[in-house]
Amino acid sequence: MRISQLSRESTVPVATIKYYLRERLLHEGQLTSATQASYDESHVRRLRLIRALIVGAGLSIAVTRDLLDGVDAPPESGHDLLGIAHHALIAPTAADVDTTAVDALLDQWGWDTHGCDSAAKAAVAGAIDGIRAAGFELPEGMLDTYAGAMHTVASAEIAGVPTDSAEAAVHYVVLGTVLVEPLLLALRRLAQQSASRARFGAMPL
């Protein structure tokens, strides 16, 4: 198909497709002349993936390119797939962040985090420090409740990772991590509203 048909099939404007080509997010089509190229269904699928990451997940072009590089050249270890997705979601932190308290919590919960991404630990430490700096105290046992709920979710997610092909595994882990995170936050808000109505009804506080 020509680029105009690719645009119709993918619902992505031609100018945007050309931009993705320049940014090396979309692979080149097969040249049919000096100025024309032919595209196929692989380009349609790739464009849908790109749009899911940029528009759906709100990722930058640079981060999207890194994720797509991981999709194109997946690591040998299934465990290392998570690093590709987490790199896109966790902002870099200072190297000197003290994660001693976080390490103690992880040990307490029995989580195997050997070789765990230090940025994830630093993000937890930063979040806890931010809560305390704001003068907000989590109710006793609430952090353990959060950890238990997240471990249940994570265990179910990892159990669903396909093992029949590296490409399928990469798509599942990367998209499942990047695109589902906003869903988890939205569901939490709805669950809070439901629990609040169950506890308080229409009563004023």
Topology readout:
Elements: H1 3-10, H2 14-22, E1 30-31, E2 37-38, H3 41-56, H4 61-72, H5 81-89, H6 100-109, H7 118-133, H8 142-159, H9 166-200
Antiparallel strand pairs: 1-2
Q: Your description of this structure?
A:
This protein is an all-alpha fold and 205 residues long. The chain has 2 domains: 1-56, Multidrug-efflux Transporter Regulator, Chain: A, Domain 2 (Orthogonal Bundle); 79-200, no CATH class. Helix content is 65%, strand content 2%. It has a two-stranded antiparallel sheet. A hairpin with a 5-residue loop joins strand 1 and strand 2. The protein is elongated. Residues 1-70 form the HTH merR-type domain. This is MerR-like DNA binding protein. One of its GO terms (biological process) is regulation of DNA-templated transcription.
Task: Please name the defining characteristics of this protein.
205 residues, mainly alpha, Multidrug-efflux Transporter Regulator, Chain: A, Domain 2, 2 domains, two-stranded antiparallel ribbon, 2 strands, 2% strand, MerR-type_HTH_dom, DNA-bd_dom_put_sf
